[in-house]
Amino acid sequence: MKSAIEIRDLTKSYGDVRALDGVDLDVPEGSFFGLLGPNGAGKTTFINILVGLVRKSGGEARVFGHDVEADYREARDCIGLAPQEFNVDRFFPIREVLEHKAGYHGISQADAKERADEVLKRVGIHDKRDTRFDWLSGGMKRRFMLARALITDPDLLILDEPTAGVDVQLRHELWETITDLNDRGTTILLTTHYIEEAERLCDEVAILDSGRVLEVASPDELMDRGTDDIVVQLRDPPTAVPDFAADDDRVDAVELDGSRLVVTAQQGGLVAPDVVQALDRDAHEIVDLEISRTSLEEVFVEMTRQDEGRATMEVEQ
Amino acid sequence: MSLTSLDVTGFYALLRREVLRFVRRPRNTFVPPFITNVLYFSVFGVILGERIDQIAGVPYILFILPGLIVLGAVSNAFENASFSIFHGRWNRYIEEALTSPLSYTSMVGAYVLSSATRGILVGVLVALIGVFFTSVGVAQPFYLVAFMLVITLLFAGLGVIGGLWADDFDDLTMMNQFILRPLVFFGGVFYSLNEIPEAFRQASLLNPMIYMVNGVRYGFLGVTEVDPNLSLGVLSALTFVVVAVNVALFRRGYGLTD
């Protein structure tokens, strides 16, 4: 599959600080790709290099095959950006702001007017078309950021924390709009703090920390690497803790709290039948069973914590 | 769509945006120079002018009229470009253009041309106020148009540099008050070069404003204290250099990118 974004050994330094430290990444065309990382991981720097707001210190960055510096015009024409910070022209009503943005992308005035109405309707703020950005509510401002990114009908839509600070209902509406675009072939690059968002929307995620890519995988693959809890409620408390770990490498720990047994294991869904069988064999009556899957958030926290530990060790050495 | 046609449409869109920005705010853009120049003509032209002999063979009010036009035109061209770029950087909405496929030349072209347009409009406004106070003709229309175009483009280009360089609004005020205004006031707007001591006269010739004021004065009155062709040539070359610097700064991302 062709890449919408190709990154090779990308670096960005601010004095002694390495904001990006040799990033390699491929975002497949048509995919819904998530970029996760703690604050200061380099996500926004990465995005800003693609759109020309930050100049890279080294390496290569291409958008649909166009180098972001040598072929900056072609690269930028493919991209629609909804940045985290509001950067909207405050002098004009929002419909005109959209018309101007479309014009910068070579769209004629007549087409720009039509498109502006269309995207404002799509994000549900068409009735505010003659209002200036400053007078919109917080949620409407977020909707407008998406509308502005869509006005040029981009092949690559970059959303930097698109649902930051919005209520649950609006978040779901925005998800629906974005998913619909992705279904129609638009490549989406999403950064988010809401792990649920990445888990729910993304085909693939990259975990970025301290300017480095720690992992690229699907949310399911990542979650499979974490441990699940198999929580079994027994009729009567057993006299001893059953030793499941001895027979199964996937089992990490077994804890007994009265009649409640918690088995912590990788791939909990596959381990659970063995646990049930073993308990049956020992004549324990099971009242309830629940598998609590590890969340992407837990995997993410674990991975970034490990990376932090590695970095500390490197410094100490 | 080819990049060329994209650039033409994109350039026009940014130019239109920039012109609409000042046209829709006459209280900020046209009313202040209107009031200031009514005061200048009333005080310097009528009240003081009646007590001053002719200068270079013309009444004082007529002598200062071209200078006031230059003052209004260049300061507005400079202010428009520097404010628009700095305000866009400050509020980050300049990123709407920066992240677009517009070429750097088109971006600079739109900022410079729109700011020069504001300068010329203010120049026309000052001329109309002048006509209310005194009768004036145009002796050299070609030179008048050429000088007005060149000086407004030049100061718009300088305004672009100022807008990229400024770190806060105080820097914009500082440029206007401590650089632009002294240049203008020592640029022969209100006095003749022939009436100041030789040392000051020689020093004044280093001030580019002298050539601009005399060029526009030549256009209106047909009188000048410096060679208009030489002035036009030097100012045109300077304008070309400044606009080329603008494009280079945009390409480097000076003041625009991290």
Automatic annotation (TrEMBL), chain A:
Location of the ABC transporter domain: 5-235
Domain of life (superkingdom): Archaea
SMART domains according to UniProt: AAA (SM00382)
Keywords for this protein: ATP-binding, Nucleotide-binding, Transport
A Pfam family this chain is assigned to: DrrA1-3_C
Alphabetized InterPro entries for the sequence: AAA+_ATPase, ABC_transporter-like_ATP-bd, ABC_transporter-like_CS, ABC_transporter_ATP-binding, DrrA1/2-like_C, P-loop_NTPase
GO MF, one example: ATP hydrolysis activity
PROSITE patterns, per database record: ABC_TRANSPORTER_1 (PS00211), ABC_TRANSPORTER_2 (PS50893)
PANTHER family in UniProt: ABC TRANSPORTER ATP-BINDING PROTEIN, ABC-TYPE MULTIDRUG TRANSPORT SYSTEM, ATPASE COMPONENT
Record-given protein name: ABC transporter ATP-binding protein
From TrEMBL, chain B:
Membrane topology: Multi-pass membrane protein
InterPro entries with a match to the protein in the record: ABC-2_transport_permease, ABC2_TM, ABC2_TM_bact-type, ABC_2_transport
Protein name: ABC transporter
Membrane-spanning residues: 30-48, 60-78, 108-133, 142-166, 230-250
One Pfam family cited in the UniProt record for this chain: ABC2_membrane
Coiled coil (UniProt feature): none
Gene Ontology MF: a single term: ABC-type transporter activity
PROSITE patterns: ABC_TM2 (PS51012)
UniProt KW Membrane keyword: yes
UniProt keyword Transmembrane, yes or no: yes
Keywords: Membrane, Transmembrane, Transmembrane helix
A GO term from the CC aspect: ATP-binding cassette (ABC) transporter complex
Subcellular location: Membrane
Location of the ABC transmembrane type-2 domain: 24-253
